[in-house]
Amino acid sequence: MCSGTVWIVERAKAKCRVDSGKVRRIVALMPATPSYIPAKDADFNAWFDNFNTLLTANPTNYGLVAGDATAVDAQWDIWDPAYQAAITPTTRTPVTVAAKDVARVNATLVLRPYAQRIAVNPAISNALKVGIGVNPRGTVPTPIPAPLTFPVLIWIAATPGVIQLAYKDSSLGATKKKPFGSIGMELWAGYGATSPPPLAEANFIASITKSPLVVDTTGNAGKAVQFFARWVTRSGPGGVAQVGPWSAGLAGTAV
Fold first, then answer.
1. Is 3 part of a structural domain of the chain?
2. Does 56 lie in the same domain as 155?
3. CB contact set of 58 (below 8 Å; sequence gap of 6+)
4. In the structure, how many helices (H) and strands (E) does the chain have?
5. Domain C-terminal end among 132, 165, 192
6. What sign for the dihedral angle of Cα 114, 120, 125, 126?
7. Residues 64, 109, 114, CA angle at the centre, nearest 5°?
8. 103 within domain boundaries
9. 100 and 43, same structural domain?
10. Same domain for 155 and 128?
11. 35 and 108, same structural domain?
């Protein structure tokens, strides 16, 4: 049995360790790997090489000291030979692959805190952060603005109890893409005995994320109907979702 916490580089995967020449599989959980540490070993190797080279050359550029660079370089000296042995056909065996996995686990444990310190240090320029391979982190998130465009509703067909619609954005042509920041479309509708009601008399139907779509018109056969729609964001200033301008009305008759 393993004691303590075992840190694994890739989530939800079994990893291995080498013990007296035998390969033993271990499974454990880990926090989500930051996006700047690549998931694939080949990409991780390139990222690690660049990180180590720049940090070793001038650790003070990144708010660190020579001892920090030495600790990172020591992990590189273990990781790179293990990685090369695991990918070279003549040396690739279950044991060398397991050794590579363990080397990556240990290297990531050392690298992650340094990378996070660099990412959040406001004294380090974004150019240096990007160059060494970490994501700059802004101190103030930029709110998602309200959409400036509106949906264009398209009537496809009316069959008993159902109306099929489609939509597109007013500025994006025939594509089904939503405008930047939008997570979906609010669909509203109003029914009238003889004429389609205006927006003021419409009611919310649903939040729509895919086109085409169907609307249940059960109980409204023969009535005039008019649909309206607007884009909505996930959040915005103050954490409040933002909505865009209303579409033109799309009128027809329910069957």
1. no
2. no
3. none
4. 4, 9
5. 132
6. positive
7. 20
8. yes
9. yes
10. no
11. yes
- C-alpha 188/C-alpha 104 separation (Å) is 53
pLDDT values of the chain reduced to their tens digit, one per residue, 255 residues? 343 333 333 333 334 444 444 444 433 333 443 457 888 999 899 999 999 999 999 999 999 999 999 999 999 999 999 999 999 999 999 999 999 999 999 999 999 999 999 999 999 998 999 899 998 875 455 667 788 999 999 999 999 999 999 999 998 877 778 887 788 999 999 999 999 999 999 999 999 998 999 999 999 999 999 999 999 987 766 667 889 999 999 999 999
d(CA 28, CA 40): 19
Is 108 inside a domain boundary?
A: yes
Range of the domain at 160: 151-253
Please indicate, yes or no, whether the overall pTM of this predicted structure exceeds 0.85: no
In order of 3, 5, 9, the CA distances from 27 in angstroms are 12, 11, 11
What residue type is assigned to position 29 of the chain?
L
